[in-house]
Structures are given as C-alpha cells and as structure tokens.
Design brief:
The protein has 199 residues and is α+β, with helices and mostly antiparallel strands. It is built from four helices and 15 strands. β8 and β9 form a beta hairpin.
Length: 199
C-alpha cells in the first residue's frame, strides 16, 4: 500500500518538531496542528515529530487530505490514489448464498480488556504523572517532552525538550537538570528522570 509521506519542520529558534505535507522553498508553511510559520522562521528537519497534535492528526486521512489541498499539493494525493487503484485487483466472482446461511445469528466479538496502565518505571524514567506520546516519548503536565532510547533491553534517558527555562546544576555525582516540572538526576552511573517534587 502506498503511504503519504509527511515532512518535518522546526522553528529556527528551536522548539517542537511539526508535520506538514511539504516544506516550501519560500513563503510560510502551515503545520498539521494549524500553526503558520512565517517565511525564513523555520527549517526542514529529518528528526521525528514531537508535536502531539501533529502526530495525532497524521493518523486522520481527512486532515491529511485537507492539508495537502490547502498547500496545493493535491496532485500528490491523486497520484498515490491512482497507483493504489492500479495495484488493486477487483474481485468479480459471484458467491452463492444458500438460504440456510442467511438465518445464522450474528456472532459478536468478545469485549476487549481495557488498555494496560503505564508501569511505574520505564528504565530511567519514573512514569508517575507523565503521559506517553509515542514509542519512547513521554510528556509531563507542563509540556516537557522526555525522549527515551532503547539500549539492549533497557530504556535510557536520551533528551529533554522544553520551550521554557532550563537549569543545570553541578553535583558531586554529576549534573542535575531541571526543565519545567521535570528533574533529571544522576543515579548509579545513569540517570533518574521524574517529575519534580512540589515544595
């Protein structure tokens, strides 16, 4: 199946990485989350998007179609649709329906169990108060994004993204980092990432 490929864009001043149908060579760009970034204030990036609204809307085909047509990129959608139609073979067989089959009761699928709650800890991250925003990406109540990277079977702290004040303090055991409501502390040759304790 042919997939629509979205491109990633970030403000030159830093911040979240957004999705858009195409990064233009000139002029402004509108992201899937509805932000318009002025000409010269953004740059294309190969990094993964971390804007929760863009990520959520990238799964909605109607929004993606609208975004492509808003950027006058509708011809790309039409090309993909035609390629998909060419590869699809219609099933022209006529299947018989015996009278006995029509009277069978409908069998409904068994109800699914509710999704599992997040574990108390994912590697170096204490998950209490965080919400998952994709594989290895967690978001704090104040919007601090924590990226975790898998090394072997263990999740390790990789990056903190925050558009506010960040404070780094040198400790005997290493470095303590505070960004918004998130705290990163050195612990046993690694780190512990958690929400800051209220004082």
């Amino acid at each position: 199946m042919h997939q629509v490929r979205l491109e990633a864009v970030r403000r030159k001043s830093g911040g979240r990485i957004h999705l858009t149908p195409r990064v233009p060579r000139g002029g402004p760009v509108t992201t899937l989350c509805g932000q318009t970034l002025g000409e010269g204030s953004f740059a294309a990036t190969d990094s993964e998007a971390d804007c929760a609204n863009c990520i959520r809307r990238s799964r909605d085909q109607a929004r993606i179609s609208g975004a492509f047509f808003a950027q006058e990129e509708g011809s790309e959608l039409l090309r993909l649709s035609l390629e998909q139609a060419r590869t699809r073979k219609p099933d022209l067989r006529v299947l018989p329906h015996p009278a006995g089959e029509r009277d069978k009761p409908v069998v409904w699928p068994a109800p699914k169990a509710p999704p599992e709650t997040a574990p108390e800890r994912v590697g170096e991250l204490v998950t209490r108060g965080f919400k998952p925003s994709g594989e290895g990406v967690w978001r704090s109540p104040l919007g601090v994004i924590v990226r975790m990277r898998k090394q072997g079977k263990e999740w390790r702290f990789a990056e903190v993204v925050f558009e506010g004040e960040v404070i780094a303090t040198r400790l005997e055991a290493g470095l303590r980092l505070r960004a918004g409501d998130v705290e990163v502390l050195p612990e046993d040759g690694g780190f512990e990432v958690r929400l800051r304790k209220k004082t």
